[in-house]
Amino acid sequence: MLRTFTSSGLKQTQRVSSKALHHQTPAAPPHATASSSSTSGPVPAPAAQQSPVVGKFTFADAANSARFYSTSAIAPQAFDSYQPQPYSALDSASSANTRSYRQFTPETQANNRQSNNHRQTSSHGTRNNNNHTYSANKYNNGGNVYPQDNHYDSQLAIFDECLAQNSTYDLATGKISGGVNHFWFAVKKIIPIYRSLIYSGQLNEKRMAEFVSLLRNGLRIHRLELSKLKKNLDKDSNNPIKNIHYLLTCAIREVSYNLLDGLISLNSHGLTHLFKAYKDLGFTYEAVHIWETGKKNPSLNYLFTSEPVLGSIFPFLVESGDFDFNEIWEMYQKIKDSKGANEKLHNELQVGMIRVCLFKDHTNDALAIFKQLTSDVYNSFNHKGIEPPINVKSYMTMAHLSFIGFCKDIDTADYFFQDAVNESMPYLTPLQLNFIKKYLTNTWEITHDYEKVKKIWLITWRHYESKKTSNSSVSSSLNDAFLSIFFKKYPTFSNESFNELRAIIEDYNSIRLIDEPFINVLLSKSTSWHNSEVFEFILNTANSNQFSKTNVFYRCCLKACGSVDIDSMSILALFRQLLANNASNGMKFIAHADWVALRDATINSPYLSNFESVNDRIDLYFKLWKICSISFISLENFKSYVLKDVKLNFNYSRIFQQMANVNADIEIPEISYFENNKSIQNYIGTGYTF
């Protein structure tokens, strides 16, 4: 019966990518570690008496909140690009001041600040906020202390205790000092307290600088915690580490706009770290908008144009394209010319200007500033007879790494790279991954010397292995950068390209054992060759290396199946292995990423019509749908897949309408370890609708 709807005459019309219908965050490189896989046959089902192991990262869904200032449980959201959110009404009695960030202008900022100042300095000296009356001054009404002032004192004491839990980030090792658990507890506790203290007048510049430092360290620790995971988190999973990133992002934005509204104050050190936090988040345009707005405010201009702040914002300006090099160079020279004989430029400004010069291919200017930076640091401390402290040397470290990652003169970049590898400098030169990736890209784009790129990749891996600083995250990211270049060098399959692929696998294995992230990247990148022999070779390589596999591996295998002509039973075997892997890790429902991988292997493959077994793949998809769809993680996913499938080919609607008659004559014993979704169960009772 199903064959009737999937005959060779069935046309694949109105093909729409499943990824095109929703906003997608930039795809992270496939990343994980990985158990034995084969496409040769089905995986034995887990014993019926054996309960799957409860997954380490299985949590209940957190409550969603679209409010920017919400202190309730927050569901993770994508912040890869600036997405303005509604600005909560800080004054419940003045809803007219409520605004969205998209509506933020210097004029509204000035009006809001004037309104705020008027209310704060009114004859009563009070402000109504969410049905609580706050005193604008601690002592009022003849020196009497309002009850809420005692509340402020207790909250301030807790605030300071949380600040004391801030951890330090070791630039050399990337490790965090202090207890991570205590740190996260402090972060979650301090943010709502910050909101309650905004109008207390007690959040001075020093406290605020320490608060911003804590938030930025939170981003660093979050990144470090993610790097320890064996695989990326699924988008539909609910994990505390995802929620904390959303919480940090909201708090960083909140501090920024509170500063522009005149509700808090920051010193140059605090604002510099705030902009660096935006750099960590990748919010270039939002950072430039905040800087432009603050610079235009007469009461904030001195802060936003201070040397360290300019040093942190200059790279943003160049990357955003809003400023040309000459404008920034004139600002830098004006500050430099204003210095007295014994006055020195701030090191932050020097590092920022070095990066701007390198970004715009002014290598000699960058070298001159670097020479001045090192001279200023060592002359200053040698005169005192002491060695420069680590935090001061870190400016030279960042300048050195900037030459590796941003210098367009590859000979100069090579020089700095070799010094970093040899550790021949009087300051730390860790091979930070983000700079190495830029170095690889620049080397390829400027020289097109593949052998040189390959050499850099292997040297970096030897260095990481000798320092024992590699992990799954590093493997995924670094290998993705190199293999992207490899497949640009060899865009099509040939004996030469296949031999070179074998060679780099051997080279990699001579330095470190083959791991899942490496294999996952290979599977994803090699799809451009559309060669089943290469696909089988990569699978055999994975199977011959005994690393435990995660569900990411099987998803990558399935996605790769959409680009190579293999039989449908091999696809079924991989899907069963995926389900078995998920069940063993305690998953009770079929995740979105799992079904997307199967769709990409079958009906959503852009090469479906080129395969000999096109009808077999379509049949397989709908047979699996009948068996598995009741265990999807949500009804929303169920409905979304139906709509997307019908958009691929409207004839599929007939299959959905007659799903009860589809003969699902395939064995999927692994599905017994998954639960039925009651909302889907109830929905199916009404029939399939479109």
What features would you describe in this structure?
With 690 residues, the protein is mostly helical. Among the domains are: 7-47 and 490-684, no CATH class; 91-323, no CATH class. 57% of the residues lie in helices and 2% in strands. The chain has 28 helices and six strands. The chain has a two-stranded antiparallel ribbon with strand order 1-2. Strands 3-4 form a two-stranded antiparallel sheet. It has a two-stranded antiparallel sheet with strand order 5-6. Strand 5 and strand 6 form a beta hairpin. Helix 5 packs antiparallel against helix 6 (240-260), helix 18 runs parallel beside helix 20 (516-525) and helix 22 runs parallel beside helix 24 (592-601). The longest helix has 24 residues, at 205-228.
Question: Can you lay out the helices and strands and say which pair or pack?
Answer:
Blueprint (H helix, E strand, L loop, with lengths): L1 H4 L80 E2 L11 E2 L5 H15 L5 E4 L2 E4 L3 E2 L3 E2 L1 H17 L16 H18 L7 H24 L11 H21 L7 H14 L2 H13 L4 H4 L2 H14 L4 H13 L9 H13 L3 H22 L5 H17 L3 H13 L10 H15 L2 H18 L4 H18 L5 H17 L4 H10 L6 H13 L6 H11 L6 H17 L7 H10 L12 H15 L6 H14 L3 H6 L20 H7 L6
Antiparallel strand pairs: 1-2, 3-4, 5-6
Helix pairs in contact: 3-4, 4-5, 4-6, 5-6, 5-7, 7-10, 8-10, 10-12, 11-12, 12-13, 12-14, 13-14, 14-15, 14-16, 16-17, 16-18, 17-18, 18-20, 20-21, 20-22, 22-23, 22-24
Organism: Pichia membranifaciens
Protein name: Protein RMD9, mitochondrial
